[in-house]
Protein 1
Amino acid sequence: MKILVPIKRVIDPYVSIRVKSDQTGVETDNVKMSMNPFCEIAVEEAIRLKESGKATEIIAISIGNQACQETIRTALAMGADKGIHVLTDEILEPLAIAKILAKIVEQESPGLVILGKQAIDGDNNQTGQMLAALTEMPQGTFASKIEIEGEKIKVTREIDGGLQALNLNMPAVITTDLRLNEPRYASLPNIMKAKKKPIDQKTPVDFGIDISPRIKILKVIEPPKRQAGVKVESVTELVDKLKNEAGVI
Amino acid sequence: MTTLFFIEHANGKINNQSLKAITSTKDFGGEVHGLVAGANIDEVVQEAAKIEGLSKLIHVDDEDFNNILAEKITFVIFDISSNYDFFAAAATTTGKNVMPRLAAKLDVSQISEIIGIESPDIFIRTMYAGNAIATVQSYDKKKVLTVRPTAFKAAEIKTDACTIEKLIPKNIPEISEYLNEELTKSDRPELTSAKIIISGGRGMQNGENFELLDKVAAKLGAAVGASRAAVDAGFVPNDYQVGQTGKVVAPELYIAVGISGAIQHLAGMKDSKVIVAINKDEEAPIFDVADYGLVADLFQVLPELEQAL
C-alpha cells in the first residue's frame, strides 16, 4: 500500500510572527521556516505504518515555492521514500491545494492520504476534508489513533468532549491531531541518504485545473494588545477583585 | 439570500456553541433556515424551531444521523444546496469536520472560524492562532463558513416556533461507519465552552498536583486546562492543552497557575475576558497579559484560594 503525505512549509511554531506594516500579510522574509507540526505527525504516522509492514511506499508532497524542497527533504530524512514538489510562487487556497492533491491521488492510487489537521499559519483546517470530498473518500479527521484492519481503517478522533471511533473504507483520508504520535528527529546518516532520494518536480499547470483565488485578503492587522494589569498582594485581595471589580465569579 | 445553519445537539439539548454561532447569520441578510439531524429527537426539534431568527427548521429524521458523519450529512445538505446562498456552522470539531467537505462539493472556498462580518461577502477571521487578524472578501457565489462561537452571544429561544419540515434522506453513501464515543467523564465543563478555566503549567511539578487545581475548579464550576509544557512533561493528557497546537479558548475568566506564558500558550488564551496569573517568578511573561497577577508560591495559594471561594 502506498501512502501520500502532503506537507506544508510554515513559519516555525516557536517564532513570534510580525504583521507587515502595510497590512498585506505576515512577514516571512528572513524568518525561520519549518514543517508544519501537524504535518510532521502525518509523516511519522506513515513511517510507522511502513515499519509495521502495513505500507510499502511513502510519498511526501509539498506545494509552494522552491524552498519547499527543503521541507520535502526533511520528510525524506525522517523516512519517506520519494517526494513530489508542485512549484508555485502563488499562495494557494486549501480548495486549490485539494484539487492538485486529488489529481495526484488519481495518478498514484494510494491506500491512505495522511495530512496535518491544519497548518499553523492560515489555521484553515480544510485541506484534508476537501480532498476527501473531491476524491469521494471517507475522512477520519483529528485522528489520535489509527488501526488498519483488512480493507478498513479504524480511526479514533479527538472531538470536543472526548474521543470518537469510526470505521472507514479504504482508501481514506486521515488528518492528524497531536496525540497520534511523537515525530522522530532525522538522524545524520538519514539526512545524508535523503539527499539521494528522488523528488519529482511539477507545476500546477501540469494538472490542468482551475486554481484561481476565491478569496481576497483585504488587510491583515495585529490583534489589540492586552495591557498588563495590576499585581495583587494576597488571595483575599484577588478574590475580592474578581468578585467586585471584574465581576467574573 | 438564504442561509442554512447546521445546528448540533447532544443528550436532548441544543449545543450552546451552535446557539452562539447562529447569531452571526443575522448579518448575512435574508432568511435563515436551521438544519438539525437525528431520529427520536423531538425535544431538540421543538426547541430548535424556537431559536431567534429562524424562519424554517429542516429536520433530517433518520437514526443514521444521531451521530454526525461528514460523508453522510454533506450528501444530504448538498442535495438541497440549490436553495441556499450561505452555509454556516459553529467551528466545533463537528463543524470543522463537515463544512470543508461541503465547500469542496460545492466547489467553493471555505472561510474558517469567522469572528466578525463586515458585509455579506467580507468577513473577519484570525490566523496564526490569533496573532494576526485578517479581513477577507469572498468571490464565491455560495459561501461556506464556520463561526467561532466565542465571538457571538447565544441566540435566544423564543416562545413561538417556526415551520418544521421533515427530510427523509435516501441513498446515502455507506463508506464510513460510526463505532462509539468515549466522552471524558467529568463534572467539569468542557474546555472550549467553559466560562471559567484554571490551567496548570510546568510549575505544577507533577500530575498529582493537578488535584489542587481540580479542587479550585470544583468551587468555581471551571474547566481544567494545561500548558503544552505540562502536557509534554506527562502531567496530564493532551486534551487538556490550551495553546497554538491545542485548544483555543476565550472564557470569561482564565486563571494561569505556574505557567510562564510562552507565545504558544498565550496564543490559545489571550482573548479571555479576564486573565489571572499566579506564578512565583515575577518576571514571567504571563504577567504582561494578566489583568491580575499574584506573585506567590502556587502550593500555598491554591489551598487558600479553594478556602476563599
Protein 2
Amino acid sequence: MSAGPYVLRVNGNDHEVPDAHLGESLLWVLRERLGLPGSKNACEEGECGSCSVQVDGELVCSCLVLAAAAVGREVTTIEGLAPDGELADVQRAFVEAGAVQCGFCTPGLLMAVDTLLDDLPDGGDPDDLIVREAISGNLCRCTGYGRILEAVSIAADLRRGNRT
Amino acid sequence: MTDVRTEEPRTVQGAPRIGESAPRPDGIPKVNGSFAFSSDLWHDRMLWGGTLRSPHPSARIRSIDIGPAVAVTGVHAVLTSADVPGSPTYGLEHADQPVLASDVVRYEGEPVAIVAADHPDAVRRALDAIVVDYEVTTPLVDPGLAESSDPIHPDGNLIRRIHLRHGNQEVVGDVVVEGTYEVGMQDQAFLGPESGLAVPAEDGGVELFIATQWLHADRDQVAACLGLEPGLVRLTLAGVGGAFGAREDLSLHAHLCLLALHTHRPVKMVYSREESFHGHVHRHPARMWYRHHADRAGNLVRVEARLLLDGGAYASSSGAVIANATCFAAGPYRVPSADIEGVVVRTNNPPCGAMRGFGSVQACIGHEAQMDRLAAALGMDPVELRLRNVLATGDRLPTGQVITGTAPVAEVLRTCVDHPSAASLSGDPMSLPGGAGRTADPAHVRRGEAVALGFKNLMFSEGFDDSSSAICRLEGGVATVTCACAEVGQGFVTLAQQITREVLGVEEVVLAPAATATVGSAGSTSASRQSWMSGGAVQAACEEVRVRLLTSVADDRGVDPDELVLVEGRVVSLSGDFEADLASVTAEAIEAEVEFRHAPTSPLDENGQGDAHVSFAFSAHRAIVDVDCDLGLVKVVELTTSQDVGRLLNPLQAIGQIEGGAAQGVGLAVMEEVLVLDGRIRNASFTDYLVPTALDMPPVEIAALIEQPEPGAPFGAKGIGEPPSISSTAAVVAAIRAATELNLTHVPVRPTDIALAGA
Amino acid sequence: MTIARTLEDACTALAEHPDALLLAGGTDLMVGINRGQVGFDHVVVIDRVDELRGWRREGDELVLGAGLTYSEMGRGELPVLLPALAQAARTVGSPQIRNAGTLGGNLATSSPAGDTLPVLAALDATVVLRSSHGTRQLALDRFVTGVKQNALEPEELIEAVRVPVLDGPQEFLKVGTRNAMVISVASLALVVDRAGRSVRVGLGSVAPVPVRAIEAEAFVDGAIDWDTGSLPDAAVDRFSGLVAEAARPIDDQRGTAAYRSHAIGVLARRALRRAFSESAP
C-alpha cells in the first residue's frame, strides 16, 4: 500500500521518498529509491549484519527498520562514512589489513567497527573479545575474521591519532 | 545503468609485484560502498523477476494455470517450460536439469514458472496466483536405496560409480580397523544472493550481467536453452559476493534472459536468502565405510573403502566430485593396495555439486579418523603413524599415478605439529563453550588437541581439456589486461596486476571487465586453478607483448633484443647505452591473446588407474578445542596450519584464503548442516543454518607456508584456496574426540552426540 | 501510519485502527513484512513514546518500560538490580538486534524461545497493558498463553513490566549451538529471594510457554540452609531432576526433546551451584 511522500535524512542530506510503499524497509528504500546501494541485502531478516547502518548513532539492521518510521532520525550509511571522498580511518584500515575479499560483508562491518570505535573509551587497544562481540552480528564467509580483527587494531590506532 | 566496471585504474605507488602483498585494486570501491555487486545493478525501465518453485520434493505436474497471474496489475510476463525455445535442459556434466519443470518436479524448490513485473510486490502476487496442480509422489530420499529404486530420471538413479583397485588385492594387514562415518550437507552460504540483470539487445541477443564462476560455460548453456548462437548471448561479470562452488551451475541465468527477451525490457532478479538455499547446489552428504590395514610397525598395507554420496535430483558436477573423493579417499599416504568404490546417486533430495574441497573434504574426514583409529590400535602416536606413511615426490598414488611435482607432506605435518601453541586457559566466560549463554564453568570443560593431514588435486582432471585465455594490450605505457576469470573475492584481480607488472615493468595496469564478448574462456573459478591457469594466461600474454615490443625496439635500434629489458616503465639496454620511456615506444598499441593450457592428463580406467591429475597440494591443521561434555557445546580455541603453496604470490591474500577456508572447515565440524527431512530443507535461513561468527572462530596460526616451486606451474605457485577447508574439519573433529574420548562419527558434531552419548 | 509521540497518541491511534500493527524495534515484525507474509492497513510506531522508554524504581519494584531495549538492559544500574535480565539480554541476537529490540517486543512476540521470558517468569513479573479504555495488569503466566499467543486485546499495547527488586544472586543460562545470534535451545533463569527464603526458576524453550519449575522450587526452598547459604550435592541432584520434569520439550530443527530435557537439568544444577555453595564456609 502506498505511503505519502516522506523525507529521510541520510548522511546529512534530506531525501524525499516520493512513491513509497509503506511496507518497504529502510534497506530497500536506501538501495532502490535513494540510489545508495552500499548497504547490502544478504538475508533481509537481521541475521547477517550486511545491511547495518547507524540510526541516531546506534548500529542497527536497516532491513529491520520500516523506512517510513525513520523520519526525523539521522541515518548514516557506508556512503556517508568518508568525508568528501577521502577514506575514513576504518576504510583505510580494512584495505591495508587485507580484510576485504568478496566485499559483501564489508559495508556492514565498517559500520559496526566505526560504531565500536566511537563507543570505546580512549586509550588502549580494544580487547579481542570485545571486538569479536561487537562484530558478532556481522557474518563474513570469506575471511574467517582474522584480517578483520587486524583491521580493527589498525583503525583503533588511527582513531587515537597514533598513526596518520 | 550502473557501471559494472568495478576496478579503479590507478597508478600504484611502488608497483608491487609477484611475492608482495599488493593491495587489491577493487579494495577502495568495496570499502566506500561504490562496488557494484550483481544485486546492486539497476537499469532504466527495468522489470523485476521472480521464480515459482515446487513445494514438493517429488510430484507430477498435471497442469499449470498462469491466467490469474497474467491478470495481476503490473505483470509483464509469466513463462513456463513451454516458453523455452531451445534446449529444455542444461547441466555442467550432463544436460539433465530442466530450465523450468514441465511434467515432473524432482526436488523441493525446483523452478516451475517465472514472472516479470513492475515491482517485487507485483511479482510476489503473481507467483501466488499461479495455480499448479501437482500429483504428489513419494520421494526417493535414502541414497542407499537409489540404485534399487525405480529411476526418478530418464538418465537413471546412478550418476557415477568408480571402482578403484590398486596393487595386490589379496593382502591383509596384521592390524585392521574399520569405521563408518557420515558427513552432513554443507552449504556454501555466500553472502551475495543470486542476482543479475538481463538486457535485451537490438540484434535479437541478450546482455546478461551476472555473478558467477564460469562465464563461458554459463553462456554456452544459456545460449543452448535460448536457441541462440553463443555470440548473441553476452555475459559480463557483475560483482560477486562469494561463491565457494555454488555459482558453478546456472541458477537464474536462463530465467532472466527468457524474461528479458520476452518482455523486451531489462529484467533484474534477486533471490531471497531462503530462495538461495533452494536455488544452488550444496556439498554432497556422504556415508563412508573404511577398513585400514597396517603391519605391526605401522606401515599402511591396504585401504578399503565404500563411499556413497547423495547427488540429489540433478547431476551437476557429481561425477567429478565422486572421482575426487575416490582418488583421495585414502589420504596423502603411501597405500600399496587399495579397493575403493565411490558411488554418487540421484535422489529427490536437494541437488549437490561443487563446494570448496570438492569430495576431498568428505574423504579427509574419513581417512583421518581412520588413521587415528589405527594409531590407537597400534599403540602408536598419531603423528608418528602419519609421518611413517606420508607421500613424497616419486611415490605412487592409489590411482597408479606417480607424483612428479613437489610433495613436502612430511614438512607440512612436522611444521604444524612443532609450532608452539598460543592457546591459553582464559577465565573469561565469553571464551568458554557457550559464550554469552554462560552455560559452562571451567571445571566442566575438557580440552582436546589433534592433528589432521589432507590433500587434493589442483585443477581439473581425467583428461579434461582445460584452458584459460587472456589478452594483454600495451599502449601509451599503460597495460590493459582482459581475462574472463571470475573474481569471487579470492583476489585474482590483484594477481593479474602483479603478474603484468612483473613481466612488463609497468606501473599502471587496467583490468578490463570480464566478459564473454571480448575474450575466450578463462575456465571456472574453482578447483584452486585460477592462479595457475588464468595467471598463466596473463603471464603468457604479457610475455608475448614483451617479446614483440623488445624485438620491435631492438630492430629500430639495430641491437639484439636480448640486450633490452623492461624496468619501471622504461625500456633499458643492458649495456646502458640508451633507455626509452615505455609510453613513447608504445604509442602504437601492442596486443596479444594467449590460450593457456596445462600438461594433459589421462582418464581413469575401469580400475580407477590413470595419470588423471595435474598437481597436488597438501595441508595440515592442528586444532585445540574446549568441550563442555555435559552439554556437548564446543569452543574451537586455536587452529594452527601449514600448507604446501609452491610459491607465495601475495602473502596477505594467501593468509586471507587460509583463514577463510579454515572458518568453513570449523563450520562443517561443529555447526553447519542443511537438515533435510523427507526431501525438505528444514533450515533454509541464516537463523538456523549457522555459520561461524567472530565469536565462534579462533585465531588461525600459520606455522609454515612451504614454498617448493611446482614444475609446470606459472611462477611455481600452487593454488591455495581449497586445502584450508579440507584438513581443518578433520582436525577439529579429532580434537573433540580427544577431549570427549567418544567415537564421534557424524560431522558436524552435534551437542547431542556428545551430551547423550551414553544414552 | 501514525508516529506516536505520547502514550495517549498511541492509544488514540489504536482505538481508531484496532487492527493496526504496533512497531517499536521491528526485529520480529519486519522479518514477516520483508517476506510479504504480513498484511496490514495501518502501523502505529511507538519507538519515540517517552513513557514507554527507560525504567524507574518504585519502592521494592522496578517498572521497566516496554520500550526498554536489550542494550539498555545491560547498562547503568540495571545489571546490578536485575542481573538475570542483563545476562539474558546479552544473549539476544547481535549488537544490531539488541539496539533495536525491546522488552515489549519480546513479550508481544511470545515465542517459546523468547530470551527475557524465563527471567520474567522467575521474577513473577506483571505485565501492564494500556488502551484508550484504561490500564490492566496481568501476571506473566496469564499474559503468555501459547506459542506466539498472548492475552493482548485489540487496541491494547504493552506499557510496562513490573518486577521485584530481590536480594540474592541471579543466574541466566542459555544453550545455543553458536556463540552469537542463536535461538535458544534451552534456557533457565534462577533468582534467589533471600528475604523470602525462596528460589524461583523460569525455563525457556522447553515448553510452549515459559514455565516455572514449581516442584523444584518448593523442594529446594526447604533444602537450603538459608543461614549459611549452602546445600548438599544430593539436593542439587534432586533439584535438577525436578526441573527436568517440569519441562515439556519437543523435537525441532534446533534440538531434540531428549537433549532439551537433559540440558535443562544440567542448567538447573549449574545455576543452583553458582548461587549456593556445597557446604557452610
Protein 3
Amino acid sequence: MKPILLNDCSREVSLLLADLLDEKALLLNERFENHKRLDDYRMIVLETRSDQKRVLNQISKMRYACNFRNIPIIVMRGREDHFPVQHYIMAGATEVLSLTDPPAACRQILQGYLIPDRRPLDQEMEYLKPFIENTVSVIQTMTSGTAEFREMYFSNAFRIFGDISGIIGLSGDAEGTVVLTFYWALAWRIISKMMQVQEEAINAELIHDGVGELINMISGSTKKNFVGTHYHYELSLPTVVVGSGHQIGHPEGASIAILIFDMDNSSFAVHVCLKPMKGTS
Amino acid sequence: MNDKTDILLINRDEELLESLETQLRQAGYAVHTAMDMREALTTITSHPLGLIICDHALEDVNGYDFLYYLKSDPLRDCIPFVFLVPLKDQGSAFKAFEMGAIDFWVYPLEVKDFIMRVRKIDPLQPSKTPPPGSPPSSPTPPAEHQESKERRKTERVRIAPSFKIEVSRDGIVWLPGQVMNFNKGGVFVRTPLLGKQGLTLKIKFLLPAGVSIVSGEIRHIVFNSSHQQAGMGIKMEQDQEWNRVQGHLESLKVSEMPSRGGNSGDPWKSAAQAPAKTIMVCNQKEQHPPDALLTDNPRKSEAESFNIRFYQSLIGKQLDNYKAVSFIGAGAMGGVFKGWDIALEREVALKVISYELASKETFRDMFIKEARTISKLDHPNIAHIYYIGITDNILYFVMEFITGQTLKNMIDRRINLNNLKGIEYLITICQALDFVSNKHIIHRDIKPENILIDQKGSVKIVDFGVAKTIDADNPAKQEGIVGSPLYMSPDCIVGRAMDHRSDIYSLGASFYHAFTGTPPFEGKDADEVLLKHLNEPCVPLNVKNPKVSKTLGEIIERMMAKNPEDRYQDYAQIIKDIKALRSKVMKFQKLKNSTLMPRPGSI
C-alpha cells in the first residue's frame, strides 16, 4: 500500500491524522525536498504555519512533483491561520481542513480522497482507447520520441495544473473538450524537436504553433476512429493556454478522464471529456 | 489596527441590505452597500475594504461572475469575498471556493451568528504587523503588476478596475481575460490564452445592455515569463459593436454612475423554499436542540459545506462494486451520484449518507435496518434499493437509477397537473403507498422531490432513506422529527406515534402544491411553516386555483386534516374517491368531445 506523506507535520497533526485514518494507513512524516517525485504517495498532508507564502510555494512544487497523478494534497490549517482558502486551492491543494474542523467531517473527507480511483467502464474505454493510441502515435511521428501511456483517472476538478495546455473544443454528434497539458521542460524539448529549433530559440509563436498543432493532430486523428459512431465530433480551432492552475469548462455531468503519459523522465496529460449528444445513435 | 476594515454588502434586496447594514453598524463596522456590480465597483475603488459579502445574484450580473471578475483583477483579488446563498442553491456554491471566495454562508442567518462569522474574518481583526500591500494571490512570481506598469507608453486609457472579458479563438472554448487599457483602435488584454501575431480572436464583453462579441486581430504579444499570463494588443474590427463596447469602456474610466433598477428579485423569497429540505432531529443524547436543526444556523450550514466537500472527494471513486460516475446533487440525508454497477453492468443511483448522520451510531443502525426491510418492497412504482454497504466508514445505498423528472420539477416548470394526468399520478402513488403501508412501513418523507416520473411516464416513489417499520398493534412514539417541513404532518411535528396516515397528510400536501402551484403553508423559516401545519387551516384549493374542482379540493383537504382521525384512514378510500372523480371527468370530457367534434360517419 502506498504511504501517506505528512510533510513536516507537527506532533498534533500527526496524531490527529493517525486517529482519523484507518490504522492500516502508512503515515510517513518527512520533509519534501525539491525535485523529489511524489507519484508514489497516496496522499500528501502539509501543515500551515506562520509563513503562508512559503506554504503556497511548497504546494505548487508538490503539485508539480505529482506529475499529473491524482494525489490529493491536503492542507491542515493551524488554529491561527485565517489565510484565505482559495490561495491554497489555486496553488494546487485539493482540500483545506483545519484543526478546529469537526473530526468526523475531516475523517470522511480524507477517507473519500483515499478511496481508490475508479477504473474506466467498457463504454468509456471505447472512446478513450483511440485517444491513447493516437497520442502515442502523434508524439512518435512529430518528435521521434516515445510516449508511454501510464495510467488514467477521472477527475473531480476543473482546474489543470500544468504550464501549458493546448485545448480543442468538440461539437457535433458528441460534444466536449480535449486538453493536452505539459510542464515547461518537456514542452520545450518537444517543441524543439517538432520545429527543429534550439530550445533557446523557442518563442511565444513557436509554442503556440507547436502545442496547437499537437492537440489538433491528436484530436483530428482520433476523430477518424469515430466516424459512424455516436462519438463522432467536429473540431474547433486549437487554443493554447499558459500558466498553472487554469480552469477549463466541460459539459455538465460529463466525466473528465485524465490520461497520463510518461516521456523522457517526465509526464504529460491528455484530458478527455466527451459526451455524446442525446438522440444520436 | 488594520487599515482595511470596511465591509461592502452587495445584495439586490433593498430590505435585506438595510437589515444587514444595521446589524453590522451596530456591531461597530463601517459598512457600504451596493445592489449591483457597477455600484460595487465604485465602492471598491474608493474605500479600504476588508470584506465583501455578496449575494449569489445581483441586479446586473450573476454573483459568481462578479467574484470571477474581482479575482481576475490583481489589484483587488486580495479582498476576502464571502458568498451569501439561499439554502436551495448551496450545492452550487461550492464552486465559489474554487473561484476564490473564502466562504459561503447559507441564509437565513441569525444576527448573532452573522456577526460572529464576520468577526472571524482575518482582515477585519486587529493585526500586530501592517498588512502586506498585496498578499500573494498565487505562487507565481509577483512581477506581473510591475510588468504591466512597464508597458510601452501609449495614449491608451487604463480602466480602473480592469474590465473582465472572455477570449476565444473559435467561439467554443472561452478563456477569461481582462482589458488592461484601450484606445479607439483596440484593447490591451491579459489572458492565459496564448495567441500569435495576426491571429483573429473573439472577445466577449459583458455590457449592461447584454453580451457583446467583437472580433479583433492580435497585433503584438507580451510573453515574458512562462508563469505569467500573456499580454496582447488587439486591433478591433471597427464596427458598431466595437463602438458600443468602446463607449462602455469610456464610461468606466470616469466615475461609475450607480444605477438602481427595480428590485426584480427577492432573495429572501427563496428562504421560503428552505423548509422543502428534509430535516432530522434525533432523540440522541448528543443531539442539538430541535430549534438548532430547524433553523438554518451556522453550525448546520458549516456541516453542509463539509458534506459537499465530502461528496466532492468521491467523484471518480469506486465504492465496492459501484463506481461514482458523476455527482447529481445533495440533500439533507446524503449526496446522490449517478453510478455504475460493475458486477451487473447497469446504471444505478448511489446515495452516500452525509458525514454527520453516518457518524451517529443510532442513525447508522437505523439506516441499515430499514434498508433491509425496504429492499424487500417489490412494487413497480417503488424505486428499488439494491444494496447497502459500508466501505472505509462510508455508508451508502445503491438504488434503481431513474431517468426522468420529479413532481417538483414539473411544479417548478408550471406544468399543469390539474388534469387527468395529475389525477392518475395521485392514484398510482396511493396504490404504491397502500402496498407500503400493508408491509407496516411508513415513508416519512413524501414530498414532490421524492415522486419521480420516468421517461415512459411511470411514477416511482424514491428515497426510503428515513422510512420506518411500525408495529401496528403497538405503535411506539417516534424517535424524533423526520421529514420536510413544507409537507410534514402535524402528528410528526408534535412527536406522536406515526402511522400511514402521516404519509397520507404529506401526500395531500404534495398534491396541494402540484394542483395549486404553491405549498399549503409558507413561511420565512421551518419553524413558521411547522406552526402553520399545526394551527392554521389551509386555504381551500379552489380558492388558490379556481380551476381545481370542488371534489378534488375536498379530497386533498381531507387528506390534510390536522387530526389523523379526521383524515382518510386508508388509501383504498382515497383511491375510490379519486377514481369516482376520474370517471366523472372522463364522462364529461367524452360528452364535451361528442358535442364539439362530429362523430365519424355523422354529418
Protein 4
Amino acid sequence: MGTDQDPERAAQPPARLTRRQVLASALATVGGLTATVLAAGQEAPADPTKVQGLPPGDAAGRRSPFVRLTREAGWTFWSYTPLGNIDGIITPSDLHYEVHHAGAAVVDPNRWTLTIHGMVERPIVLNLDDLRRFPSVSRIAFLECSANSPFSWRSSASPQDTAENLVGLTSCSLWTGVAVSTLLREVGVKAGAKWALAEGSDAALMTRSIPIEKLMSDAMVAYGQNGEPLRIAQGFPARLLLPGWEGNANVKWLRRLELADAPFMHKEETGSYTDPMPDGKVRQFTFVMEARSIITSPSGGQALPDRGFYEIRGLAWSGRGRIRRVEVSTDGGGAWLPATLDEPVLPMAHTRFRFPWKWNGSEVVLESRAIDETGYVQPTRAQLVKVRGTGSIYHYNGIQCWRVTRDGKVTNANA
Amino acid sequence: MAKSRTPMRELTRQIALVAGAILFAVSSTQAGDQGPLGIGRPPTPQELSRFAAFSVRPDGRGLPAGRGTAVEGKAVYVAKCASCHGPTGKEGGKTGNRMTPPLVDTRPFKVGVTNATVGNYWPYSTTIWDFIHRAMPFNHPGTLSNDEIYAVTAYLLHANGLIGERDVVDAHSLPKVRMPNRDAFVPDPRPDVP
C-alpha cells in the first residue's frame, strides 16, 4: 500500500494547495510519522472514486494530513493563531492563541472547584457538574492579548513579519458557560462590593481584579468552546470570559472569585499590563481592546503568483461593540474604499471583511482600517505614538500596511 | 476623520449603558425566581482560610503572621532567586528582561531610560509579598515559608533603597512602605487617539 514507494503519486501535489500546505505534507513524510491517519491520508489514491474511502471514525474526522495548520511558536510564553491560513470568524479551538504565565495547567475536572466568596451573603463552592446545572449562555467573542504586537510600538518590526507574528494573539470562539450575573445572584452580592478577584489554578495562581459592573453585564464563566469542553490552553475546565477585554483578565483555570470593596493591586494589574506614558503617568486597568483590523490575505510571507484578480480578506474587531465599517486602501493610504462585511457582524467578535482587487503588477501598499459602532476609527501607528509614546508594550492597534513588491512578495510595510 | 465621540454623545452612551444594566438586572431577577437555585455547597472554614493569604491587599488585609529583615532575606534571595534575577537583583537573568527581569533599580522609573522594577515601578509594597507567595520561585512555586517571603521582600525593598537593612517587615509594617511610583498610576482615559 505505501505511497512512500510510489514516487509518482507522492510527487503529485494536490491542486490549489498553498506553499505552506505543500511544505507541510512533505514534512509529514520526512518526519516518518506513523500515525494511522497520516499514513492513510498520504495514501490519497490517484482516483478516489475507484476505491473505498476511510471508515467512519477518528481518522476521517481529523484534518487532512495535506493541511498543516498549527499555532506558530511565539515567544516563550505564547503561540499565535495562524491568521493567514484560516477562514471565517471562528478560530478552530486548537488554533486559539495561547499565553500562559506558568505553563498551561492540566487540571483534573473531578478535583476542580470554583469558590465564590468575600462580600457575598451565601459563599458557595461549585464543582463542574454544579456549574453546568446553572442556566447556560452562549456567545461568540474574540479574545486578544493586550500585548498583541508588543514590538510594533518600538518599530522593531521586520519586513519578514507575518499576520501571525504581528497580530496572531487574537482569536474568536463560540463560548458556552454561565453568566457571572447568574452566579452572583446565587451568592447575593453585599452592598459595597465593587470588584472581584479572579484567581486561576495554574502555577502562577494568576489573578486580576475585575470591576463588578463588567461581571454583572456580559461576563461569563465559560466551560465550552466551539461545542466542546475548553482546550487545556484555554483554561479547562472553566475560565472567566470578559467580552472585549484584554485576554489576561479572562482568567483561565478559574478557581475563585472573591468579591471585595477595592481592587487587590496584584502583580498583573500593577507591575504588568499597565501602560507607561511619555509624561511619566502609568495607565492602569486599561481593559478594553480598541477597534483593530488586519488584512490576512494577502499578508506578510505570502506571495501573489501572478497579476490579476485577488480578493483582499481580513478580520476586524472591537472591544467596544460591533464593527460598523472596514475601509481598505490599495494605494498606500490615499483612497479608502469600503469593504464588504460578511455576516454575522457581532459585538466583540471577529468580523470578516472582503474587498475585490486587481493587481496590475506594480508595487503597492495594502492596508485596512476598522470603524466601530461608537465611531472610533482605528489609528495609524504614528497617531498612536504621538499620544502614547513608545513606552508601553500593550494595547497597540495601529493600521497594518503590507507591501506587495513587483515580484509578488508580500512584506511588512510598517517595518 | 471626524471624531464622533462628542462629550454629549459619550454622556448619552453612558446613560444608555447604565439603563441597559438596570434593565438587565431587573429582568434577570424576574426571570430568576424566588431566590437562589440552591446549587453547590457552602465552603468549609478550612477552605476559606486556605484562600485567606492569597487575598493580600494594599492596606495589608490578607497578610499572614510572619516576619523578616533584609539581612535574613539576602540568604533566601541568593539561594532561591539569584539564578534567574542575577546575583544581587540588579542584573536580571540571561533570558531577558521579560522572563527574568532585574528586581532592583534605585533610580526613578523612566521610559526607555531605566528598567521598571518592583522597586521603582510597582505602586504597592504588598504586591511584592503577594507575587512571591503565589508564583515564585518559578521552578518551585509555593515552597517558601511566610517568614522567608517576608525576608526576601525586605531584601528587595532594602536593595531598592526603600527600607533599612534591619527593618522588620511583617503584616503591620509592610503596607506602610510607600512606593515611589505610587502616584504615577492613573485610570484608563481612552479613547485618546486620534
